[in-house]
Structures are given as C-alpha cells and as structure tokens.
Design a protein that fits this description.
The chain is mainly alpha-helical. Helix content is about 55%, strand content about 0%. The protein is built from 8 helices and no strands. It is globular and about 35 Å long. The termini are far apart. The model is unreliable at about 135-150 (pLDDT under 50).
C-alpha cells in the first residue's frame, strides 16, 4: 500500500496561513516544527489510510494552531474566516482526525490543554470523550469568552 505524505500539503498550508495573515511570521518556525511533529505522529494511527493527505495536513495545521493557542479571537471574524477558508476541511473530517489524534496524546501531560480545548470546541467525538473520562469539557484555568472557540459559520 502506498500513501502520499501530507508534508508537502502542510508546507503549502503554512504558506497560505502566513499569506492570509492567519499565522504570524514570528511563529512560523515553531508552527512548522510542531506541525511536522504532529504529522509524524499521525503515522502511528490509520489516518493515512482513511483520509486524504490534504485533509491530514489541514487538520494538523488546526491542531498546531490550538496547541500553540494561536486561534484568532472571536472578535476578529475576518481573520477566523480566512483561517478556516485556508484550511479547507469539513468540520466532519476535522472532528474525525482530531479524535483519532487525541487518542495518541491521552497520557501525555503536555497535551492535556490541547485535548480540553478540542473537547470544548466540539472537535472530538463523544466516544473519544468517554474513553478519556471527559463527560464534557474539563474546567479551564483561563476560560475563553462564551463562543470564543466556536468555529464561525459561513455567511
């Protein structure tokens, strides 16, 4: 079985996110390295057999944004919309990929905030939340404003 590496698609997403100002130039190197690490981790799952490499690249970019806590604020609707348009992935695919990836990080203490944020945003399947013992999003030390992490709906 041959699978296409999502790395080239991820590199293109980084360029696109930077071009539309959804990614700051100062964060580009760290963002790229973390995203590449997430892509490497994705090979420990069956994602490469289930999803197109473009979708994996977009989801890893999204996970990296959440991990780095670089999601634009809800008040910056234009930037949020540009970011999601650039990622070009359905919410269903995004949820599926995020749920699969979170199963790798359940025991990693450094990823607990990422898992809680993804759960809070509704990007994890309910069965994954049950497996992780999260009936709902865990309380956060710094709670976002209501709806701050919700994905904007297209006009």
């Amino acid at each position: 079985v041959e699978v296409e590496n999502p790395m080239l698609h991820f590199i293109e997403r980084v360029k696109q996110l930077k071009a539309c100002k959804a990614l700051d130039e100062a964060d580009e190197q760290q963002f790229s390295q973390l995203g590449i690490n997430f892509i490497g981790d994705s090979y420990r799952t069956s994602l490469c057999l289930q999803q197109a490499p473009q979708k994996i690249a977009s989801a890893m970019a999204f996970i990296t944004i959440i991990y780095m806590r670089k999601l634009p604020p809800k008040s910056d609707k234009a930037r949020l919309n540009r970011m999601f348009a650039t990622l070009s992935i359905s919410e269903r695919s995004l949820n599926s990929i995020c749920s699969e990836m979170v199963s790798l990080y359940a025991e990693n203490a450094r990823c607990q905030t990422l898992i809680r944020d993804l759960a809070h945003m509704g990007h994890l399947h309910p069965e994954v939340l049950r497996e992780l013992g999260l009936a709902g999003p865990a309380p956060r030390a710094r709670s976002p404003a209501p709806g701050e992490l919700k994905r904007p709906r297209p006009p």
